[in-house]
Design goal:
This protein is mostly helical. 49% of the residues lie in helices and 4% in strands. It has helices spanning 25-55, 70-77, 82-91, 97-108, 143-147, 153-162, 166-171, 184-193, 199-215, 238-248, 250-259, 267-274, and strands at 114-115, 127-131, 134-138. A 3-stranded antiparallel beta sheet has the order 1-2-3. Residues 186-195 have low confidence and may be disordered.
Length: 281
């Protein structure tokens, strides 16, 4: 059997990188997504672009354009990384914010991207991470409690099956819910397995699915820039603009275009358009 080809057009609106006066569980989750998406952008713009030049037989030497995000991403995803430790502590009954903090520092404290807190606005921050967009200090207060509080399957099932609001039913259409007529044997197995889903586990599954979809598509990127920090029309702060361009990898992309071939055209179109220039030949 052949796989059915799926054609679709979708828009992914990326939440901006967040560096607030107080950075907690929500901020580190959003910032990690940005790390992954920036890595995808870098791979598509830098690696794939240069591989295309080599494939076309163009005299090109592969260039490492920096902006390597691997160190921070590995720290999050490795077996005893941030997400694994958070998951482990969330399932441990006697775990506290303090024990979670100590385990993070014991396991990751020697990594170059895991730093001491540097926040001027949150003196109680517990650690900092060197992200591609800058250093962010995080406070782990209530992380375990938040991570153990996902949307309950039975609540979703009630909203899906009994709600008279069509929009509410539509929003939860892909969620499996919790069937009210589950067989007894399945119920026993589920009880023996124990352990419910955590927010981070659901979040990581969703992120993995998103990245799989992105890698199977042909992406185009639109970068939005904040012109100033005062929300004033017509006011431009050059250092702020340059910082965003650097963090977004736009300047690296321009460097590739300057050294490479930004304009592409299929050979039949090229021949039709420029054949007149070579008529004498």
């Amino acid at each position: 059997p052949t796989l059915k080809k799926c054609n679709f057009c979708a828009v992914l609106d990326i939440a901006g990188f967040e560096i607030f006066e107080y950075n907690g569980f929500e901020q580190i989750s959003i910032n990690f997504v940005n790390e992954k998406l920036q890595q995808f952008f870098n791979h598509h713009m830098f690696v794939v672009e240069q591989e295309e030049y080599v494939k076309e037989g163009i005299d090109w030497v592969m260039v490492d354009f920096g902006m390597d995000l691997a160190a921070a991403i590995i720290m999050f995803e490795k077996p005893m990384g941030i997400w694994a430790i958070l998951e482990e502590e969330s399932l441990f009954p006697k775990a506290t914010d303090k024990s979670f903090e100590e385990k993070l520092k014991a396991s990751l404290g020697k990594l170059p991207v895991f730093l001491k807190p540097q926040s001027k606005t949150d003196k109680n921050a517990h650690f900092a991470i060197s992200h591609y967009a800058g250093i962010v200090s995080y406070n782990v207060t209530n992380w375990l409690e938040k991570n153990k509080d996902p949307v309950n399957d039975s609540v979703v099932e009630v909203m899906k099956s009994t709600s008279s609001c069509a929009l509410l039913v539509h929003l939860w259409r892909d969620h499996p819910g919790q069937p009210t007529t589950a067989p007894k044997e399945e119920g026993k197995k589920k009880k023996e397995g124990g352990g419910g889903k955590t927010v981070s586990s659901v979040y990581l599954v969703s992120l993995t699915e998103l990245m799989t979809t992105l890698h199977s598509c042909e992406p185009h990127f639109v970068r939005c820039l904040v012109p100033n920090t005062h929300k004033k029309p017509g006011d431009v702060e050059p250092p702020l603009i340059m910082h965003q361009l650097t963090c977004n990898g736009v300047l690296e992309g321009i460097r590739i275009c300057m050294r490479g071939f930004p304009n592409r055209m299929m050979y039949p179109d090229f021949k039709l358009r420029y054949a007149i220039l070579g008529q004498q030949r």
